[in-house]
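Key idea: predict the complex, not the pieces.
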Amino acid sequence: MSGFFSYSSSRRRYPNPHMGGGHYRKKGLFGILSGWGSGFGSGSYSGRYGYGYPNQGYPNQGGYQQSGPGQHGKFQSASPAAGGQSVCPKCGMSVPAGSKFCLSCGEKMEGNAVFCQNCGRPLPAGARFCPECGAPSGK
Amino acid sequence: MASCMGKGRYGVCFLAVDPHGKKVILKKFRRRMWKKNMANNYHESVILSGLAHEQIPQLLGVIRERKQYYFVLEYKEGDTLKDWLFEKNKIFNRTEIYRIGIQLFDILKYLRSRSVVHGDISIANVIDDGEHISLIDFGLARYAGDEDDFWLDYARAADVLLYLLYSGYPGKGKRPWYEELPLSSEQREFLRGLIEAGRSENGDFGEKKRQVENNITNIKKQFQEYFEKDCS
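Result:
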């Protein structure tokens, strides 16, 4: 009767490839508690704590990171973030260059939506030339 | 919210009315998809922020309510070509196909000037109101890495035209389209060149690409030249 409990019916047989190490993490109350402790969690699993944007090597974006789980509620300075990205003045999250709105709180950020007149790609905050085509930004 | 406009892998689109009484589209993302594509979710927002074309919906806002994400998009009048073809069983005549083709290549020309590859041009993503078309769903859109990336859009646009050409087709479709459809040799070669060139795996990719120059202005000009005759 080895096939009585088939693999397809067992709930956690197949790990979700997008879940990373989180699949193997304890679920339920003990899973949450162990996540709070510093010694149990891997520290890289941020999906459970809200939406974050990992660094994704996109041209002109130069890195797009949000504060980690432990930094929630802390206000970041409103200066351009690393890699020419902006920071939302309302929620303090990084906003990708070119986006008219903060993707975390929806705040309108017209000043962030600056695009190259020549090639149309987003310009990093404060850029004087387009990093893609080299055309002057007109600032 | 007034009604559900469509569902997709990404989530659901609702028709809604903004506080000023204007119709808008609320694109609600599935939480699972949003989390799964976390690294790429910003593309649509950034690309739409940089586009200003009357046949492309504008991004009007981003709403985050509890753990749900919504994009607020401009509403475009009309039905998708998919609905026209398969729900309303419309037969497109050559004049209409010409109008849609010209407008589609116009939009592609604009996207080319902004370095944007739509990546998902299909009959489900083209809205037609009888006079103007609109290109929607920039969920798979990206900035082009190199010149060859644009070929995907040109090939998919040719696919859309083929659907329209097939709308009045009475046959059984047992032979390939280039043998079945009543097209002139120029029209046939033009469409075939676009479709073949979009397949990068194809062995004769370079050959086909040389046949149809990689320049959207020329492609539009050729389309105009070959298909305008049918309209008179």
